[in-house]
Amino acid sequence: MMLELDHVTAGYTKDVDILRGISMQVGPTEIVTILGPNGCGKSTLLKTMAGFLTPREGRIVLAGHDVSRVPVYRKIRESGVGFVPQTDNVFTSLTVRENLLLGGQFLSVRERDARIDELCESYPVLAKRHTSAAGGLSGGERQLLSLARALMPRPRLLLLDEPSAGLSPKMVGDVFDAILRTRDTAHIAVVMVEQNAVEALRIADRAYVLAMGEVALEGQSSELLASDDMRNLYLGGRAA
């Protein structure tokens, strides 16, 4: 397994648990989506995987190594984790190229330049806007830039927080297609938190549905798309 969570409990303040014994697995080239109603703990779970939060109980194992207490900057630099937040995910005053350079800051100059060329070939819109300020990009273009920047150091695991947030229907499809293409070409594992269940399940291999900080449902995407239990969970979930 690329990623394993074993009964992880975590939260932001003392004695208040947002995650309550979460267990899940992600294979080396799987796309796994985390779904559920607002306030169920989806983003908290992703932040705990990334290292922004340390589990109070349980373990996080990445490629066979316990990384439960490894902070985010070390996971990105040493453990092959890429993280794309939901908001403020590009440096708006910098150009597209400068954003990508920051993503590859620990690479050699030769590796960094070659990687930028590769990613611009994969995402032609970034090549066209190479010298443009990121603040002038559309919402979808910003998402593609944030994705490409996270891919600069060739991560083994990519964590995405609401990649469709604020996008038009057409751009939602484009961004999800880019995520699927990235998995297929880079052969990496992807975990994404999403509100757009239908689009997320379209490209995901499997999904976990949370309710009140616990795994309420899990399974193959095709099974969950047809699940009455999943629809009932969304309708009955209590928003925080």
Number of E-state strands: 10
Strand proportion: 15-25%
Number of domains: 1
What is the CATH T-level topology? Answer: Rossmann fold
Order of strands, widest sheet: 6-7-8-3-9-10
> What's the CATH H-level homologous superfamily?
P-loop containing nucleotide triphosphate hydrolases
Main sheet: strands, sense, barrel: 6 strands, mixed
- Given as residue ranges, the uncertain stretches (5+ residues, pLDDT < 50) are 236-240
Question: Could you report the average pLDDT, rounded to the nearest whole number?
Answer: 92
Reading the helices and strands in chain order gives EEEHEEHEHHHHEHEHEEHH
Query: What is the second-level CATH architecture?
Result: 3-Layer(aba) Sandwich
Task: Give the N-terminus to C-terminus distance in angstroms.
Answer: 32 Å
Count of separate DSSP helical elements: 10
Structural class: alpha/beta
What overall geometry do the principal axes of the alpha carbons give?
A: globular
Rg from alpha-carbon coordinates: 17 Å
Query: Which range best describes the helical content: under 10%, 10-25%, 25-40%, 40-55%, 55-70% or over 70%?
Result: 25-40%
